[in-house]
Structures are given as structure tokens and as C-alpha cells.
């Protein structure tokens, strides 16, 4: 691992300044569960780490006025056990407790998790030169396309990259149209979480829309009556502590048997947290039936393109969406 | 072993089971040999030189004992414990947070020490498997692992026990299913899971009664 300087500022302003002062090669680090891991693999090689975990006031979780506000430093495990969230937004707590292990959730933060990098095995295991990767080394090529691609994306891939966006939490936040707040050299700004993630296109090494030196400080979830009848459904190779093969965040607003509003986002199948508007449109205004849920699931994957070994994700993903719709709807019957 | 310093060493930084075993092999498999072998331990704990710009001074508390030392910024909490403090209970399994063998408590919460920068221990309380027992009296979880034969090779066991103690404290040891879910970050390649779940259920009832 490359040597690095380490500083631990106590305000966001100091952190932003420390980042700017450090020049090229600076990175913010919070829990470090992803960054430090990738540093051990020589994929991330920062020269200066700005540890943001001592910044005051970024670890509060507030539910005042129906609006959910999470400071970026709230540990994933703390948000996962918030009773108000569990009652009004089960999709959020399920996305959290179904992610990682309790050890990792105690370390990782709700802000840092938004920036988790792909688990593509060619990305992770090729820093010694064994495999090309356009994320690691722009322009070097992609070993996953046409390779052992059973874990790769079927939605949002390009000729340069088909690596899956690995997160669960960002998928749930995408469904609920959460807002991300950042502080940077140009001041404070906020934007929908969906805008944080870029498609790979010809530049898969550019994964996030953050400017250099911008620090995520908070996440806000706008109030929605679709939150209560919601779920995060995650299908994996093993029952726990694994990344999603396919997952679906579904939140429904329901009147009687009729679905008034639907929010659906997909994980494990796409190159970014994937909003499935087509699936939503297949449900809105409709009476819930299992057949309707399956139609919506299929609609979510109309644009999907299989590679050599990952075609199963299209059928698995469609059924995962259908099951999630059923789970969310049944919560309105309880 | 009946080394006179056994108990104090268990909670201090100078005990190295590795050294003790090494000493036993080279000299003689007696408790006296094991004790004398520890004398050379401090020599082995000298760190590699590090440039001042890549060093930090760390002040932390490990198993109740205040520690102050200079570390390379790259050092993981696991390597600090094992290579600088000779606390080799926490194990290096995968070194990537995937196996749980390195689990310790940081301010009372379980973490993967391999993915924790040691520098993050500043001003905080670290508890390892060496700090769990009350003198010669094992923690109920340690005793339960023995009673339920919850191990085979034992390599994952310190991490399993530290995770299990936290699992109970969090309120996540209420059913077999919940225990399995909240212990999923600890892999046992020998497959002693049946005994591990039974041990946690048993210890949980004793810990709640305590």
C-alpha cells in the first residue's frame, strides 16, 4: 500500500480546505470499509487521507415534520435500527440491514455508502496487470465483457464497462427520490440522489457527479405516503452477507385495492442504481393482482441486454420486482 | 500453563501466544520456557521505520490499558494489535472485512479491525478477546463456546466470540434465525455453526440474567 498523510479535521469547512490544500491525490475517508479495502488492493492510491469522522454535527438522524434527514456520518447500523424509519419507510431499513455485516454496518456511514465502488471481480483483482479495466485504467479495455460475466450488469452497460453498481441503500434512496447535500470549495449544494450516479458510457472511471473536493454532508428523504407500504427485496447467492444478484426497492401508495403511486428501483442488475419508470407506469392506477405485478417486473427489464452468462438476471430480476410489489402491497393489508 | 504473570499478561500488550509457542518448541514445552520466551517479545515488536509525514501518534485504550505509540498511517487496527501490541487473539483471515476473524469492539461496537485504520482508534476504547474474561473467570460466551463444542480448528473463534457478545448486547440474539442473520459476518470454514448458534443462545440467557 502506498504511504499517505492523514489528517482529521473537526468541521466540514476545514475538511474541504484540507482536501484542497493537499492537492492531487487527496481523498475523504469516513468508515473506510470500501476505500481502505481498495487501497489494500492497490486500486485506490491516495496520497492524503482526510478523515471526516470527527466532524461535529454530521451524525444526527432527524425525523421532525415527516421529513427524514440523515447526517452523512450516521452509521448504517444506527439508521437500520431507527424505529420511526422502520415504521414509515421499511424500504430504507431493509436496504440497510440486508447490506454487509453488522461489523461493517457499525463502521460504514450512510453518506460514504453512496460512493461504494463496484465489486466487479476484474476491477478488484486486476491491479497487478492481470486484467484490463476501463475503470481502473481508462482506455485499457474491459475483461468482463465477453468474460466471466455472470455477475455483470444487464442494464446501463456500455461497450467500455458492464460493472454493477453494488449498493442497496442508494437503490432504496433512488426509489424515494432522496436529496443529497454536499459541501465543497464552491459552497453548499443539493441535488436528487439519482443525479449522483453516472452511466459508464465511454468514461466508466467517472462514476459520480461530485466535483473534486466535494463532501457529502447529509441525505434528505422527502415525505411520501408511499413509504409505509414499501420493501427492499434482495436475492443473493447465499441468504445473508452477500451482494445482490437482483434486488428491488418498491414503495406503493394504495387506495383500497388500487395502486395510486409506485416507486421502483433496481439493484444488482445495472451499472447505477436503476429507477424502473416502466414498471411504475405498469402499476399506477391499476388494481393489484399477481399477474399485474409480474407484468410490471417484466417491464422493468424491457431494455435489458444479456451477456454470455448473466442472462438469468433478466428473469430473476423481473420476478424479484414482482415479489417485492406483492410484499409491499400486502403491507397495506396488515 | 502456570506462568505467574499469566493473568496480568492476558490483559497487557506483551503476551504473545505465538512467542510462547515458539519458545515452547525451541526450548522445552514447559511453562517456565513459555514465560522466559516472552522476555524477547519486546524486541520483536519494534516497528519498521516510517517517514514523519506518514506517521501519527496514537493515543488509545486497549483492554483497559492506555497506549501511546507512533504508527505508520497505513496500519490497520488488526496489525496494530497483532504486530505492535502482541495481542494475537484477533486473527487475520481475509484482511478485507469478509470473514469476521478480526472482530474486536471499538467503543463497545463490533468492528472488523482489518478494515479499521488504527489511527481511528484515537481516544477510543478497544476491547479484544484477551480483554473479555474477568481474570481467570471466562466470559459466559467463552464458556458457552466450550460447552457447546462451538469450534473445530478455532481460528475464527476469537472473532466469533467478540461478534457474539456484541450480538447479544445489541438485542439481536433473540431467535436462532436472528442470530444466524446477525452473525453472518463471521465465517467458520469448519462449519461449526450449529454449535455456535447453540452457544450464543445459551450465553445470551446467562448474560441477560447477569
List keywords for this structure.
heterodimer; A: 334 residues; alpha+beta; Uridine Diphospho-n-acetylenolpyruvylglucosamine Reductase, domain 2; Enolase-like, domain 1; 5-stranded antiparallel beta sheet; 4-stranded antiparallel beta sheet; 19% strand; globular; B: 210 residues; Ubiquitin-like (UB roll); DNA polymerase, domain 1; 3 domains; 5-stranded mixed beta sheet; 9 helices; disordered N terminus
Task: Describe the overall structure.
The complex is a heterodimer of chains A (334) and B (210). Chain A has 334 residues and is an alpha+beta fold. Chain A contains 11 helices and 12 strands. In chain A, strands 4-5-8-6-7 form a 5-stranded antiparallel sheet. The model of chain A has no long low-confidence stretch (mean pLDDT 97). Chain B is an alpha+beta fold. In chain B, 38% of the residues lie in helices and 13% in strands. A 5-stranded mixed sheet of chain B has the order 2-1-5-3-4, covered by helices on one side. Chains A and B meet through helix 2 and helix 6 of A and strand 4, helix 7 and helix 8 of B.
What topology emerges from the helices and strands here?
The complex is a heterodimer of chains A (334) and B (210).
Chain A: E1 5-7, H1 12-22, E2 26-29, H2 35-40, E3 48-51, E4 61-62, E5 68-71, H3 76-80, H4 83-88, H5 90-97, H6 102-107, H7 121-125, H8 169-175, E6 179-184, E7 187-192, E8 215-221, E9 229-235, E10 246-255, E11 258-267, E12 274-275, H9 277-283, H10 290-300, H11 312-330
Parallel strand pairs in A: 1-3, 2-3
Antiparallel strand pairs in A: 4-5, 5-8, 6-7, 6-8, 9-10, 10-11, 11-12
Chain B: H1 6-10, H2 17-26, H3 31-37, H4 41-44, E1 55-62, E2 65-72, H5 77-84, E3 103-106, E4 109-112, E5 125-127, H6 140-147, H7 157-169, H8 176-182, H9 193-209
Parallel strand pairs in B: 1-5
Antiparallel strand pairs in B: 1-2, 3-4, 3-5
Helix pairs in contact in B: 2-3, 6-9, 7-9
Amino acid at each position: 500500500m502506498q504511504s499517505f498523510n492523514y489528517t482529521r479535521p473537526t468541521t466540514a469547512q476545514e475538511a474541504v480546505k484540507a482536501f484542497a490544500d493537499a492537492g492531487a491525490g487527496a481523498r475523504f475517508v469516513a468508515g473506510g470499509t470500501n476505500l481502505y479495502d481498495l487501497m489494500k488492493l492497490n486500486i485506490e492510491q491516495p496520497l492524503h487521507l482526510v478523515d471526516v469522522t470527527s466532524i461535529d454535527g454530521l451524525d444526527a438522524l432527524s425525523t421532525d415534520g415527516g421529513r427524514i434527514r440523515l447526517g452523512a456520518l450516521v452509521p448504517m447500523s444506527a439508521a437500520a435500527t431507527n424505529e420511526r424509519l422502520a415504521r414509515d419507510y421499511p424500504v430504507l431499513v431493509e436496504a440497510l440491514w440486508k447490506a454487509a455485516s453488522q461489523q461493517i454496518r457499525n463502521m460504514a456511514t450512510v453518506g460514504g455508502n453512496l460512493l461504494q465502488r463496484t465489486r466487479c471481480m476484474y476491477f478488484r483483482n486486476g491491479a497487478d496487470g492481470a486484467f484490463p479495466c476501463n475503470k481502473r485504467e481508462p482506455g485499457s479495455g474491459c475483461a468482463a465483457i465477453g468474460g466471466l460475466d455472470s455477475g455483470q450488469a444487464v442494464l446501463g452497460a456500455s461497450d467500455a464497462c458492464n460493472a454493477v453498481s453494488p449498493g442497496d441503500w442508494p437503490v432504496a434512496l433512488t426509489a424515494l427520490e432522496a436529496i443529497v447535500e454536499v459541501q465543497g470549495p464552491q459552497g453548499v449544494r443539493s441535488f436528487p440522489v439519482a443525479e449522483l450516479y453516472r452511466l459508464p458510457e465511454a468514461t466508466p472511471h467517472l462514476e459520480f457527479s461530485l466535483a473534486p473536493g466535494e463532501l457529502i454532508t447529509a441525505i434528505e428523504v422527502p415525505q411520501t405516503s408511499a413509504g409505509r407500504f414499501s420493501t427492499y427485496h434482495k436475492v443473493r447467492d447465499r441468504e445473508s452477507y452477500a451482494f445482490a444478484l437482483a434486488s428491488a426497492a418498491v414503495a406503493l401508495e394504495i387506495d383500497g385495492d388500487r395502486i395510486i403511486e409506485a416507486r421502483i428501483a433496481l439493484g444488482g442488475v445495472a451499472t447505477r442504481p436503476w429507477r424502473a419508470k416502466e414498471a411504475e407506469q405498469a402499476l399506477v392506477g391499476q388494481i393489484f393482482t399477481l399477474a399485474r405485478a409480474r407484468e410490471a417486473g417484466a417491464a422493468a427489464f424491457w431494455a435489458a441486454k444479456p451477456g454470455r452468462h448473466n442472462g438469468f438476471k433478466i428473469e430473476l430480476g423481473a420476478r424479484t420486482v414482482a415479489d417485492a410489489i406483492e410484499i409491499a402491497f400486502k403491507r397495506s393489508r396488515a | 500453563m502456570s506462568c505467574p504473570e499469566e493473568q496480568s499478561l492476558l490483559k497487557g500488550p506483551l503476551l504473545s501466544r505465538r512467542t510462547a509457542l515458539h519458545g515452547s518448541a525451541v526450548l522445552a514445552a514447559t511453562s517456565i520456557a513459555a514465560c522466559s520466551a516472552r522476555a524477547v517479545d519486546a524486541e520483536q515488536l519494534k516497528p519498521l521505520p516510517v517517514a514523519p509525514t506518514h506517521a501519527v501518534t496514537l493515543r488509545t485504550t486497549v483492554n483497559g490499558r492506555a497506549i501511546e505509540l507512533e504508527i505508520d498511517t497505513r496500519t490497520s487496527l488488526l496489525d496494530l494489535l497483532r504486530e505492535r501490541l502482541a495481542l494475537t487473539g484477533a486473527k487475520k483471515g481475509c484482511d478485507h472485512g469478509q470473514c469476521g476473524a478480526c472482530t474486536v469492539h471499538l467503543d463497545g461496537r463490533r468492528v472488523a479491525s482489518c478494515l479499521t485504520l488504527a489511527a481511528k482508534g484515537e481516544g477510543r476504547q478497544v476491547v479484544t478477546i484477551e480483554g473479555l474474561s474477568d481474570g481467570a473467570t471466562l466470559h459466559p460466551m467463552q464458556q458457552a463456546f466450550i460447552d457447546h463444542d462451538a469450534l473445530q480448528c478455532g481460528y475464527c473463534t476469537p472473532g466469533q466470540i467478540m461478534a457474539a457478545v456484541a450480538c447479544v448486547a445489541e438485542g439481536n440474539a433473540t431467535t436462532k434465525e436472528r442470530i444466524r442473520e446477525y452473525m453472518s459476518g463471521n465465517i467458520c470454514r469448519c462449519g461449526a455453526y450449529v454449535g455456535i448458534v447453540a452457544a450464543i443462545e445459551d450465553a445470551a440467557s446467562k448474560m441477560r440474567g447477569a
